[in-house]
């Protein structure tokens, strides 16, 4: 299929959700600029409501539903940030949210989802959860997919619009995380729509190479993620997000979990910003790619989320010797 989210879709979504989400800051990073040898800016989306970019797409989706649809309730599958965001958006819209989570979901994510207003039902794994979501949809609930939905992708694309507006000039390289591919699709479509010359670099971690495997196979490939970057561990890509990756991404960079943890600690100590591994991995990818930066170029890193337990950080530091 052809990718079906346009710059106009993203601009309309940004206008729709403007009163519902935070316009997160974009700032110059002196430390990263020194490390990479070129001016580097960061889009600190980790400061977004719910701790990640996900509320953007969720509000855009739910604000496009009618009263009757909202009254039937929302069902979704997520073990991470989408779960929290759907719960927040549904509560704000006066709708009931049921989140189907794999049993292996971290306790922090379950607690944050329930605190945001969602009801949690645990399933054996992601495959079982997606099947159960179809059952609930057949009973009348609105099934909101976490990344294979044009409205979700368009909402996420508002990050790209803000970055382009606030970066203080044109950007040459932008690094963005890939899970199922909806976030990279939206951000990429916004940035490339405004400046076709910008190069978008997708980032995955070892053990969460959903898009890399799908593109290599030419079709979605079910995976069982093993990366500590749990919010990148989508069980499969889709034809829509694969089409976006082909059209918009310069490349996909895969980094080790250890590198993501190293940069998580570096950013926390040097930038005073908490990141989850799914966000810190873009810093690791830029570090690994800095030889391609040319004098005078400008780099941007999209720091997508901050939902991580402090005890996990402590354990990873010991595990990886960081």
Descriptive report:
The structure is a single chain. This protein is of the alpha/beta class. It folds into 2 domains: 7-53 and 151-320, Rossmann fold, CATH 3.40.50.1100; 55-149, 3-Layer(aba) Sandwich (Rossmann fold), CATH 3.40.50.1100. The chain contains 15 helices and 10 strands. The longest helix has 15 residues, at 257-271. The termini are far apart.
Properties at a glance:
Rossmann fold, 6-stranded mixed β-sheet, alpha/beta, about 325 residues
CATH C-level of the largest domain = Alpha Beta
Structural class: alpha/beta
Number of strands: 10
Percent range for β-strand residues: 15-25%
Strand arrangement in the largest pleated sheet: 1-2-10-7-8-9
Radius of gyration: 18 Å
Q: What would the CATH topology of the largest domain be?
A: Rossmann fold
Q: What is the N-to-C order of secondary-structure elements (H for helix, E for strand)?
A: HEHEHHEHEHEHEHHEHEHHEHHEH
The CATH architecture of the largest domain can be given as 3-Layer(aba) Sandwich
Overall shape: it is globular
Largest sheet: 6 strands, mixed
Distance between the termini: 43 Å
Counting structural domains, the number is: 2
